[in-house]
Amino acid sequence: MSHDTDKLIRQLSLVAFLMAERRPITARDVKSNVEGYSEMSDEAFARRFYSDRAELLSLGVPLQSQRDEFTGEELYTLRSEQYFLPQLELENEELAALQTALYLLEGKFAYAEPLRLALQNLALGRPGFAEPPSDTALRVEVLDPDYSPEMPGRLAKLEGAISKQRTVKFDYWSISRDKHAERALNPYALFNDRGKWYVVGLDLDRDALRTFRVSRIENDIKFATRRERDFRIPSDFDVSEFRGRPEWQVGDLVGEARIEVRGDTAWWVQRAYGSTGRLEDDVFITEYSSIPQLSSWVLRQDGRAVPLEPEELVERPAGPVAPERFAVLQSLLAYLLAACGDEKEAEIPVGDLLERFPSIPPEELEEHLSLLNLVNFGGGCYTIYAELGEGSVHVDKELWGDTFRSAPRLTPLEARAIRLALEYVGPMIAADAHTPLARVRKKLEETFGVFELGRTPDLDDEGVEEDLIHTLARGMDERRLVEIEYQKEVEAQPSTRLVEAYRFERALPHWYVHTWDRTSDGERSFRLDRMRSAKLQREKFEQREGFEPTRLRGAKTARVLYTPEIARYEIERGARRLVGGGALREIQVGSDEWLESDILSKRGEAIVLEPAELRSRIAARARELAKELGVERLRVKA
Fold it and tell me: Is 463-540 assigned to CATH 2.30.30?
């Protein structure tokens, strides 16, 4: 029998013994009567009994102890009214809504099994738990980009280490430095931020608080010692300080930036970033730890955000015209292929190339050829391998082508699972249950109240999204048109649309609604965080026959080349690594404007290869944006 099996039997036997006796029990009583303890030496018993008590407490089993005033012995009790789940007055539709959450998150939620156990406990003795999911589950799709088959196991290991306050070791890929190394960590808390899981704690190698993205942990997570406890979490630790930070505030803050927000977009900046900065007379003031990350955000706003301070931020957005350089690379590639003709190779004098391409400095010719070689290995079409030799360029043309009747109290892990489920699909649950989300959450948290959830961050304020979803859900149910006020990412002013709402999608961290937009007479998807308002109309609509709306239906495919400087970040998002350190990614693009803002945000480190018509558009917009931001000299990297 394994060590874990022995421990499980021992702990369950201890709970059963304490529940059956209904009187204070001494350690001597436990050693004599509880399965698994009687054969132990006194020293081993003291160690195991202490460990089992601590672990049961961490699991939410309310063991209590006090000293006998006459003998001085420690007395232990477990009262049944504290062990069993208190009566929870959830309405049937509210419980059904939570069941819908489980259905929605099945197979893509790392805490699905604790959530299932929690709902089974909540539904114990009540009919309907095994019934088919509600209509909401059929009209909502949930996508978690950070989920993987390994994620539940990693989170469970970290949850256990946090609960037991055990030091862990793991191999970690530091993406900012592109280094792989073993790290030792005293984990304080787990949190999910914008759809990604992080663990925060004391990094023993650096003797400082650090956050680690769980998906970048490689191989197994192991306990560093065999001790029962390695550390204590500081009483003043607050995980909320690490959650909700934009990219430019990750790390030690070094200054404050002032950014003018143009057009009628202040409301969106306030909604999206109000907790990380403030607005003063259309100027967004925010602290920062990284100028490059803040610069990327400025460029993504496509002229609606103009940096005022600090000077480094004003000067930084000098790279967005990098796509324009593709015209030179395209011509160079065509020339090299033409030089090969029907043959598989060619030798071209360097002088001829430089004469034909005067925009390429002699010292940068090899750099241009190397970039073309990167495109070769990921191009999927006729390509070349070009090598600079003594006085000539050699070109090779190539072809490139997978025990107890009553339900026990929810454990802290189960409580966390429900809290996270509410965060993932909470607004949709509230809309389906026809009750404010705050009321559902309050009832559940009355059950959780005995647990210390201080290391679980507060849920985001989803009141605005909940109201929008409620209105749109009514439009779906009653087949009524909805008028929305919507701000596209690249537009300075919101527009008014009249839509037929059909389906929701939760693509973490955003909510989408898929519609038929009567204003543009076509299928459109809208992000709720960019929706200013939604008003239900009296006019009804007939469901379009055969219409199954999805995000990015009919989207075009763009091929984007990333330089080695940022390739590792894009590889994590699905790009293919290329020989030489770059990366190539095929992206489904539903909006040319979105791709434009995304390329500009890369600060000159991304080049659109296809479709060709977007290259000139992005280059032209980059020149315009450079003028708007007051950037005169433009420098790019290969």
Answer: yes
